């Protein structure tokens, strides 16, 4: 149980045992080509916002997609055939890159699911049709159970702007199981009020609403063709009652008797003994003809068995909202977890974002593992759990080195892990969403507001080698020039040489928000652990019109119109750095984010 900071593919491969997980919920980025940003709202609800990039939802055919594709082919079987066919149709496109990376991960999910385990893959119509083909190939088409449609919003502005198409208001959740025997706890939802009004038209003597149901069936089965005998007193307005003792053979004076067969062409659905039991429990009533009917009392009915059209779960309410892009409501995850797992089962969310699955699993007394490649996300989950469940909750986090030695170990054993950690510590976005491959000399990036009107960009280069030299620094300097970036941070495992320091200093200062900041800052692992921090821009409040916030936030790629648009507001406190104060925005002070976490 715990959180992993890192790419979920190697984490699953290295850390999650075969057939160990009861339920996997995946909510991967949807290939929407959007960068998601958190907007911080200052007190007083002024429209002042600032933002921090969280994760980028883009996929391109690069080395990592290619590696995944090869891994999938090496896996063989149906999925290899399907991927070969898909690549012929789609080429080395973004969609194919997305599918190659998803296929490699879904193969792992299949490996780690228990014999009665289930998978829920949350996606949207952009790629759901392709993902279903991929899942059919990995799990087998016979293991497909449902396509759930979740209405995440009641209206969406897709349909505005003169676009001739319907508003896109639903997500798709594909439900597969690993075998033909799976964990299933039936869920029910309340009856529709119109249905109650039309069906539950009677009230019993206690005032309980009930409906009458037929006791005959189309097919015979056992003791099903008898005559049902009834009796009642003559001349009184009373209902029939069963004639269990066959009194009609020796009729009493003042009583009338009747006998009814099933309707023509039909059979009794219950044996005489079962109908008798219904009578004794007060659940049988007779029509004027003497035909018995079962009384179905509304308050005893569990509701309608849950169908695959989920319209009753709204987006995360304000009381849950953490401002994390694409945050899902707890109710959605609670429903999935309650249906497809039992207490103490292990639940895994490999794209866990701000930890909705983890929080729901903890509430429902399940074990859990959450993985996310965003350092910000992992830290946010840690805080979310503490706020909700108290400081005693143990939140083991793997992948984040706790001290200098473990950070060195990470650099030695996992170059990309080291990069991810360093970029995350600096509060920056991983370049190319942390995907391995050509990075053009950039490992991390941060957009920041450069008041009064501009957005600025800070780039990060991380060097995990035992030695570092002037050549690497000059290369990074060229990258800053090429990219027109305002600021750069060069983070190295080894201490920079004096020549490097001189070179960095020669670039002088950049003015951010009217204050001078070194354009190129050097930081080494040793200085980091001695507590020194580079001077980093913080999210500076900026007035942005409400509905244009993401766009105005500074030449950041715009979300695909097909993708839900977000306003990620986190109530917070406007912090003003003191002169020369060193701020690391990734570790926002607790009081800077007010998490109101009262969860139903
Ligand atoms: C759609 S969000 C998940 C939101 C989540 N369901 C929630 O309620 O907060 C997708 C998440 O996947 C993460 N992610 C993207 N690629 C990843 C990878 N290769 N390994 C682990 N996490 C990844 C992103 O950082 C992001 O937090």
Question: What does it look like?
Answer:
The protein has 600 residues and is an alpha/beta fold. The chain contains 16 helices and 31 strands. It has a nine-stranded mixed β-sheet with strand order 19-6-7-5-2-20-21-1-22. Strands 23-24-25-26-29 form a five-stranded mixed β-sheet. It has a four-stranded mixed β-sheet with strand order 30-4-3-31, with no helix packed on it. Helix 11 packs across helix 12. The chain is elongated and about 120 Å long. Bound molecules: S-adenosylmethionine. S-adenosylmethionine (SAM) binds next to strand 21.
Structure characteristics:
binds S-adenosylmethionine, nine-stranded mixed sheet, disordered C terminus, 31 strands, alpha/beta, five-stranded mixed sheet, 600 residues
**Cα separation of the termini:** 23 Å
Average pLDDT rating: 83
Largest sheet: 9 strands, mixed
Radius of gyration: 32 Å
Helix-strand makeup class: alpha/beta
Give a count of the beta strands, DSSP E runs of length 2 or more. 31
Fraction of residues in H or I helices: 25-40%
Topology:
Layout: E1 2-5, H1 8-15, E2 21-26, E3 34-41, E4 48-57, H2 63-75, H3 77-90, H4 94-112, E5 113-123, H5 128-139, E6 144-151, E7 170-177, E8 188-189, H6 193-199, E9 202-203, E10 209-213, E11 216-217, E12 228-233, E13 241-242, E14 255-260, E15 267-268, H7 272-280, E16 284-286, E17 292-297, E18 304-305, E19 309-310, H8 330-340, E20 346-349, H9 356-363, E21 367-372, H10 375-389, E22 397-398, H11 404-413, H12 415-425, E23 429-430, E24 444-450, E25 454-463, H13 470-483, E26 487-492, H14 498-505, E27 509-512, E28 515-518, E29 520-524, H15 525-529, E30 542-543, H16 549-552, E31 569-571
Parallel strand pairs: 1-21, 1-22, 2-5, 2-20, 3-31, 6-19, 20-21, 25-26, 26-29
Antiparallel strand pairs: 3-4, 4-30, 5-7, 6-7, 8-18, 9-10, 10-17, 11-15, 12-13, 12-14, 16-17, 23-24, 24-25, 27-28
The structure holds S-adenosylmethionine.
């Amino acid at each position: 149980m715990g959180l992993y900071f890192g790419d979920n593919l190697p984490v699953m491969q290295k850390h999650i045992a075969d057939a160990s997980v009861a339920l996997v919920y995946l909510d991967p980025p949807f290939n929407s080509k959007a960068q998601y940003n958190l907007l911080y709202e200052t007190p007083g609800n002024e429209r002042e916002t600032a933002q921090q990039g969280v994760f980028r939802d883009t996929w391109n055919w690069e080395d990592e997609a290619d590696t995944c594709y090869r891994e999938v082919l090496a896996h063989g079987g149906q999925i290899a055939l399907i991927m070969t066919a898909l690549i012929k149709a789609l080429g080395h496109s973004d969609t194919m890159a997305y599918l190659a990376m998803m296929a490699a991960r879904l193969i792992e999910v299949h490996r780690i699911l228990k014999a009665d385990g289930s998978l829920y893959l949350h996606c949207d119509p952009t790629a759901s049709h392709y993902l279903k083909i991929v899942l059919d190939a990995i799990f087998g088409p016979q293991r497909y159970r449902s396509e759930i449609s979740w209405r995440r919003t009641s209206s969406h502005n897709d349909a505005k702007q003169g676009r001739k198409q319907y508003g896109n208001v639903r997500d798709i959740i594909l439900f597969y199981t690993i075998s033909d025997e799976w964990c299933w706890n039936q869920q029910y939802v309340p009856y529709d009020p119109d249905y109650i009004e039309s069906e539950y038209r009677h009230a019993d003597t206690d005032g309980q609403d009930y409906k009458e149901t037929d006791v005959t069936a189309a097919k015979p089965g056992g003791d099903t063709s008898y005559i049902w005998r009834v009796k009642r007193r003559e001349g009184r307005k009373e209902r029939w009652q069963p004639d269990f003792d066959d009194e009609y053979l020796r009729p009493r004076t003042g009583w009338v008797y009747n006998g009814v067969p099933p309707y023509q062409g039909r059979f009794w659905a219950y044996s005489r003994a079962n109908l008798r039991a219904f009578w004794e429990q007060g659940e049988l009533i007779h029509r004027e003809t003497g035909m018995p009917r079962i009384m179905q009392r509304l308050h005893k009915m569990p509701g309608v068995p849950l169908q695959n059209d989920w319209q009753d779960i709204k987006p995360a309410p304000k009381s849950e909202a953490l401002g994390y892009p694409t945050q899902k409501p707890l109710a959605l995850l609670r429903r999935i977890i309650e249906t497809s797992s039992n207490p103490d089962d292990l639940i895994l969310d490999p794209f866990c974002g701000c930890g909705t699955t983890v929080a729901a699993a903890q509430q429902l007394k399940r074990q859990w593992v959450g993985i996310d490649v965003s350092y910000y996300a992992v830290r946010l989950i840690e805080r979310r759990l503490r706020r909700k469940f108290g400081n005693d909750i143990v939140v083991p986090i793997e992948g984040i080195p706790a001290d200098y030695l473990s950070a060195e170990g990470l650099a030695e054993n996992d170059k990309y892990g080291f990069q991810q950690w360093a970029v995350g510590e600096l509060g920056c976005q991983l370049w190319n969403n942390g995907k391995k491959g050509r990075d053009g000399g950039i490992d991390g990036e941060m957009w920041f507001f450069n008041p009064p009107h501009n957005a600025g960009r800070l780039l990060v280069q991380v060097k995990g080698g035992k030695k570092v030299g002037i050549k690497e620094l000059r290369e990074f300097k060229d990258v800053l020039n090429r990219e027109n970036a305002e600021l750069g941070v060069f983070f190295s495992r080894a201490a920079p040489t004096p020549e490097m320091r001189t070179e960095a200093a020669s670039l002088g200062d950049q003015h951010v928000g009217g204050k001078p900041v070194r354009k190129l800052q050097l930081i080494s692992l040793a200085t980091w652990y001695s507590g020194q921090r580079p001077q980093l821009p913080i999210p500076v409040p900026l007035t942005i019109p409400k509905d244009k916030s993401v766009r105005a936030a500074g030449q950041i790629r715009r979300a695909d119109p097909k993708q839900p648009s977000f306003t990620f507001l986190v109530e917070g406190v406007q912090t003003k750095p003191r002169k020369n104060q060193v701020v690391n925005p990734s570790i926002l002070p607790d009081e800077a984010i007010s998490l109101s976490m009262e969860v139903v």
